[in-house]
Amino acid sequence: MRILLLSTGGKIGGEETFTRNLALGLIERGHYVEMAVGGPVQREDAEKAGIRITEIDITGRSPKRIVCAARQLAHYATKNRFDIIHAQAVGPAIMGIIAKKFFGCRIPWIWHNHGITDFAYRFIVRHLNSLDRIIANSDYVREMLTGNGVKRDRIERIHNGIHIADYTVTEQERLDAREAVRKEFSLSADCRIITYVGRLSPEKGVEVLVDAFRTLCISTENVACLLVGDGVQREELQARINSYPCKEKIIFAGFRRDIKHLLAGSDVFVLPSHIETFSLSILQAFAAGTPCVASDVGGTPEQILPRLNGLLFQDNDSTELASRLNEILNDEEFRCYLTHNAIVLSHSYLNDNRMIGDIENLYGRLISK
């Protein structure tokens, strides 16, 4: 198959990582893949991975630029005999709607929902029935779409998966990572590390984690909280913790590329988000063998089965989160049980081989119509 992927990310986050890995997986399966990207950072990342770039600007947000990109994509994809167009963001979804309605694009156009704003749900979602298929990465997203007017037969639910080998570590690598991470951040060898990986932005709920950590420190010694990532909330969070007695134990690590190393060196991974569709960070922690505690929002309960492969806490409840952390840090047998089950689930289901197979199967069904 000849596949054109569209992604408008200006940085390397969840959507951009997903699109790159999807492209590589499809190429490995023998398909021809090109990608239209969102800017120089994503372009460099894709080219470094050996992915062909389509020279069409899909980053515009004005009506004129969106229409122009829709026309160019329809013409380019038809001229070059692409079988599938697979869009990863709202902008390219709108381009698909326009290309179908006004430029006669007959190539199956898929939009992959990685999470959208309330504005998009109110004003854009009902037009998505013009596209050939919408991929929802969780049952939660599927219900949100149907509740906002998307026909159920237009939606395909495909859970995310990651390349497990990118995050799997041996026992020796884990021991080495634990030593190295503690040395880097000047922590004692037996310090227990609670780690968050993601944007520092309001929807991610990081303030809930730091409040829970403050509570945890009242009864638990020799712990640290590692915040990996950057974002608009960094200064606000730093100001928030300045009055905390435990402020020296909360570490802002900034943007990092060595996520596997940091997860392997941690004792617990926490995702305190107020909204999630189907978190890639949780999948990474599962594969790395780091037990997870997460808020019970969105598609997260489809990933974490409480007391089987992780723990959930009520969204925005820092007291309950502190209790969950205390439980998981102070019961080594329970922690190992959760870790084992998470790794098994990763290898059996939450992996990119299964996910790409599901997407490939969808492509085939749409082409054969």
Automatic annotation (TrEMBL):
One of its GO terms (molecular function) is glycosyltransferase activity. Keywords: Transferase. Signal peptide: none annotated. InterPro entries: Glyco_trans_1, Glyco_trans_4-like_N, Glycosyltransferase_grp1. It comes from the Bacteria. Residues 12-164 form the Glycosyltransferase subfamily 4-like N-terminal domain. The keyword Transferase applies. Residues 179-342 form the Glycosyl transferase family domain. The keyword Transferase applies. This is Glycosyl transferase. It comes from Alistipes communis. The lineage of its organism: Bacteria, Pseudomonadati, Bacteroidota, Bacteroidia, Bacteroidales.
